[in-house]
Amino acid sequence: MPPVSATLRTALAAMSVAGAPMTALGEPEGDGLYSAAQAARGERLYEVHCAQCHGVRLEGASAVPLAGAAFAQRWQDPGRTVDDLFYIVRTLMPYSEPGKLKKPEYLDIIVYLLKVNGYPAGKQELPLDPAVLKKLVLKPPS
Hints:
Layout: H1 6-17, E1 34-35, H2 36-49, H3 51-54, H4 68-75, H5 82-92, H6 103-116, E2 121-122, H7 130-135
Parallel strand pairs: 1-2
């Protein structure tokens, strides 16, 4: 599991102190951003609703790639948060029917994108809480 950026670790630690249902990264057992079960749900949803355009491996097909350097270039700019990514995906996707899914389903897909891009899993699910999502700056896992 790749290490997590100091900015992300600090944000998660602050959320933990504030009572959000997540623990800080970097603790023993390597708690991360989301649970493996949440990422698995997101993968299934991605396969049904996203893979046709974004590719089975998120490599891009008729739409932009959602993994690797392309994802990093687009989303790991200073100040971009998980909330920004969540907003774009839930308001614009799927392209043919924006807003078709429920918010928890969109969040699970975002979690799957984070997993594929090297962000670590932990024991807790990433909560559907804008205050939490806004604190998670998309920095490359280091």
